[in-house]
Amino acid sequence: MAGHPVRLLGADELAVDPVDAAHLLLGAVLESETPAGTVRVRLTEVEAYRGGDDPASHCYRGKTPRNAVMFGPAGHLYVYFVYGMHYCANVVALTDGVPGAVLLRAGEVIAGRELAESRRPAARGTSDLARGPAKLTTALALDRGHDGVDLTDPASPVRLYAAEGHDPAAVRSGPRVGVAAAVDVPWRFWLAGEKSVSAYKRGGRRRPAPGATT
DNA sequence: TTATGGATTTCCT
DNA sequence: GGAAATCCATAAT
């Protein structure tokens, strides 16, 4: 395999159902360039969110200034602020005013490890650098200032490169993490065997289901 | 206008 | 295993 990513993903490839876009994103490489340097992450875990009929989506109850990007063209970055202290990043899917996005849950840092560790001292020397949605944005230094950035534009500070031939058989699916609604929809996808895949935690205020991974 | 809870992480017991 | 930290959108007065 090549040592660094080559082909940018195109907006047309991402203008599909979030579930299909999620599969495209597994193994894809997200690159964030800042004055301090560049960090690259190979995505190993994602979740699909669809507006309208998906009660877990931020778009379920209509368009707001915060989620407006999700209603826009595919291939843009949707960044939102949660729990008063963390950011989460999504890649917008679909288009034509139909809201949809794929949450970037976790990845493996493949370049700029030192810089990422300086941003996440707690994870120094571990595989926890981008093992979680907010950890990933911290490692890449993404914040709401990146909301709406076009990931398919070579001139953007944040870019998305196509996956380079990972084994499709390694893809696993299951319920989304931290979501109380629509837990029966297996819209979380990850690459089997990757150390950077986050642990499953059920959303809402209930206890984990019997037999769930602990 | 006030109240509530969240697509989380980290630190304490 | 449990709770705190802490901003914003949405729901309820």
UniProtKB/TrEMBL annotation:
Transmembrane segments: none annotated. The keyword Hydrolase applies. Keywords: DNA damage, DNA repair, Hydrolase. SUPFAM superfamilies: FMT C-terminal domain-like. The keyword ATP-binding does not apply. One of its GO terms (biological process) is base-excision repair. Its EC number is 3.2.2.-. It is an enzyme of class 3 (hydrolase). GO terms for molecular function: alkylbase DNA N-glycosylase activity; DNA binding. NCBIfam families: 3mg, PRK00802.1-3. Belongs to the DNA glycosylase MPG family. HAMAP family: 3MGH. This is Putative 3-methyladenine DNA glycosylase. It comes from Actinokineospora bangkokensis. The lineage of its organism: Bacteria, Bacillati, Actinomycetota, Actinomycetes, Pseudonocardiales.
